[in-house]
Amino acid sequence: MSFPLSIPSPDWSYFDLGPFRIHAYALCILAGIIVATVMTSRRLTKRGAEPGIVLDIILWAVPLGIVGARFYHVFTHPGDYFYAGADLWRVLFIWEGGNAIFGALIGGAVGAFIGCRLTGVRFWSFADALAPGMLVAQAMGRLGNWFNHELFGQPTTLPWGLEIESTNPAFPIGLPAGTLFTPTFLYEIIWNLLGVAVILYLERKFTLRWGKAFGVYLIWYGLGRTYFESIRLDPSEIFFGIRTNVWAALLAILIGLLIIIIQQREHTGVEISPYVPGREWSAPDADVESDDTESEVDGGGNDASGSTGSAENAATSTSVSN
């Protein structure tokens, strides 16, 4: 049964440009990376970092994030890639879809850690600056799933259900052609964009530094993903009756809570600088934007490896706008 407001799946997922085949999924991922980089650079620069320093960090974070995303997907969907007569090269075909955000977080964190160590930027400063951009990038990446006709949810009678062709390998056996499915890609896009607004609001309301903004990101995304994952129809490894990615989402929530709790105890004020002590960057005509005045500044601080200074000094400082 079709509805006037139902969402059609795109009738194309790639186009050829000379000898090259350009996939819509890859374009969505690339666009998300670009937007997240611009947002992160702007936020980190406002906090006193050298303009463009983010590029030196993402040169490590993005490649390792892609590797982690693909590895995690293949690891949690082994039946899609390892079977009699399988083309093992498909393990590398990331343009076909199958790049797990939880794997990207793990690989990207390793890459960001390396990049931060090399540039002198505090790891948690970078993570906080990245938090809203990550959600925007993930929202844009979900458009790629729409183009690929994948990762849709359970059958629905809602008028905005997603149209999926009955020839799709993931189309449930026994359902009639024309069945509409829950548009999980759209729900997650909306959830992620709402998360951007939540993080920006909380940053203005409270002091979200030392990784606490990133902690909010993990909690927000984990909460949404716990639900979205539970209604998806694509096959997944099951442990104790729960899909692998639901476990990963619950772990993300736990890690986010731990980051906020631990960092709140260790650091009671804003960061003096996004750099590790001794690695600060000074511009001749630096004009770092500021807004709210904070009465307490953390004089110690974590370096890129997460170590804490020997003392934390209270002083008057100005927090940096977001």
From TrEMBL:
It is a multi-pass membrane protein. Residues 279-322 are annotated as: Disordered. InterPro entries: Lgt. This is Phosphatidylglycerol--prolipoprotein diacylglyceryl transferase. It comes from the Bacteria. A 1,2-diacyl-sn-glycero-3-phospho-(1'-sn-glycerol) binds at R142. It is an enzyme of class 2 (transferase). Its EC number is 2.5.1.145. The chain crosses the membrane at residues 20-41, 53-72, 92-116, 123-141, 185-203, 210-228, 240-262. It is found in: Cell membrane. It comes from Leifsonia kafniensis. The lineage of its organism: Bacteria, Bacillati, Actinomycetota, Actinomycetes, Micrococcales. Residues 304-322 have a biased composition (Polar residues).
